Amino acid sequence: MTKALSLHKKLKGKIVIGSKLPALSPRELSLIYTPGVAEVVRYISEKSSRVYDVTIKANTVAVVTDGSAVLGLGNVGAQASLPVMEGKCALFSLLAGINAFPICLATQDAHQIVQTIRYLAPVFGGINLEDIAAPKCFEIEGELQDLGIPVVHDDQHATAIVVLAGLINAVKVVDKNLKKCKIVIVGAGAAGNAVTKLLHAYGCKRLIVVDSHGIISSKRRDLDIYKTFLGTLSNLKNLSGNIEDACQNADILIGVSKRGLFTSPVMQALNKNAIVFALANPDPEILPDEAKKQGVAIVATGRNDFPNQVNNALVFPGLFKGLLKSRKTALTDELKLTSAIALASLVPNPTPEKIIPSLFDKNVVPTITRAIVQS
């Protein structure tokens, strides 16, 4: 039995629900429940926004999944996704002091997921969509932007923010201009979609996106509406071909795909002093030692057992804390860019082995929170 499995069997769940009251007396019972609570009900019914003043809504997030794209394990379903969602909720609590609860839905129908979240929304101050497969995740997130609370698919947006933060620092090390770099993004699912959009919003125009069938271009007739839109942001020369073709003279290669894709020919196609983010989890597209042997200057992965962990866990606690604290109703491109720049600022003197702060850096959450609140 692995240590992780042994720990989970021992804990039987990583989160708990408890009372803020240390004990219960007859007097407290009358205040928190009947008859006293009736006064609080009337207070909210007179003005709905008061719910933030007197209930858990102000600091509570729902972590919602259908289990269709869990880690690198694929469609494992609702019950098997629960340990991941519990872990996410534990991080919300431990890193940002946010109440979070896992909602693992026994449906993978986009319409039913949207409707269920609408029904649950009165309890929560924010919705964290998690491990929902593309392109369904785009539809669900889009449909819920009128909810009046932030609905964020952090596999997309938190990942994009931490990638941009890492790149802002990585190019300083190799003395390149990020906005002028040729950047290849391998993977056009949730993370690849959001990374491409945020890099474009930052001002990067030399982008090429590659999916499992090759370079995304206007010549392709097999693209859905989401990949077609990516084509309008990337591949200005309308190139065709595979990963190796895309990587010819590229300065930056970002993988949000699957293990083993970054082969020696792909590495050799890159420019000198290249930057590689191999972010497939748990097994990256290439291991750091192998990438360094191929001449890459800077390597990042999503794992904490290698230098330069580029993982969305660096972002979502502070991101949601800022959104909740400021009561913003949506996550805009401006907020994403501001968050990325703030996160990057925590490493003022980046090196090849240190382009992003540690998840255990106590400045990460307050820095991102402050950036969101002040924007």
Give the neighbour order of strands across the main sheet. 7-6-5-8-9-10
| Proportion of residues in extended strands | 5-15%
Outline: elongated
| Helical residue percent band | 40-55%
User: Which structural class is indicated by helix and strand composition?
Assistant: alpha/beta
Number of strands: 10
CATH topology type of the largest domain: Rossmann fold
What is the name of the CATH superfamily of the largest domain?
NAD(P)-binding Rossmann-like Domain
Average of pLDDT: 95
Rg to the nearest angstrom? 22 Å
Class of the largest domain, according to the CATH hierarchy? Alpha Beta
How far is the first residue's CA from the last residue's CA? 48 Å
- Unreliable stretches (pLDDT < 50, length at least 5) are none
Description:
This protein is an alpha/beta fold and 375 residues long. It folds into two domains: 151 residues, Malic enzyme, N-terminal domain (Rossmann fold, 3-Layer(aba) Sandwich), CATH 3.40.50.10380; 220 residues, Rossmann fold. Helix content is 42%, strand content 11%. The chain is built from 16 helices and ten strands. The protein has a six-stranded mixed β-sheet. β5, α9 and β6 form a beta-alpha-beta unit. α5 packs across α14, α9 runs parallel beside α10 and α14 packs parallel to α16. The radius of gyration is 22 Å and the shape is elongated. The model has no long low-confidence stretch (mean pLDDT 95).
